[in-house]
Amino acid sequence: MGIGFSGEDFASAINAQENVSIVHGGNRIAALVRTDKSSETVMEYQIIERAKALLKRYLLESNVFDEAVLKLNIDLCAIHKIAFYLGAPNGRLTLRYKP
User: Fold this and answer.
1) Contacts (Cβ under 8 Å, ≥6 apart) of 75
2) pTM
3) DSSP assignment of the chain, as one string?
4) Residue 29: which of 84, 93, 82 has the closest Cα?
5) What is the structure's pLDDT at 83?
6) With 20 labelled, which of 14, 32, 39, 67 sits at a CA distance of 20 to 30 A?
7) CA distance 11 to 34
């Protein structure tokens, strides 16, 4: 899924109660950061299906793939109360969403 997290990544990070989860692709790094409000557990199949539906929706709205992935990541972070950061490998990560 471009630079960002898949539904499987979200489910794994949430269910393992990871404090930070990082993905690197090309010239971008994305990070999920657990908050005190974050979901404790999720049903993996539900979050995977939601991620697929969001990706399809954003692509149909004429978004390019990477932008669609970014939007679905922020949506899933909002639903599960997770902070989302985005940046470059040699630079600073910027907060893109905070619950």
Assistant:
1) 54
2) 0.91
3) --SS--HHHHHHHHHTT-SEEEEEETTEEEEEEE-TTS-S---HHHHHHHHHHHHHHHHHTT--HHHHHHHHHHHHHHHHTEEEEEE-TTS-EEEEE--
4) 93
5) 98
6) 67
7) 13
C-alpha separations of 53 from 24, 31, 49, 59, 96 in Å: 23, 22, 6, 10, 22
Q: Which residues contact 64 (CB under 8 A, 6 or more apart)?
A: none
Q: Residue 23's beta-bridge partner residues? A: 30
Residue written as token pair 């970014």:
70
Structure tokens at 57: 């929706």
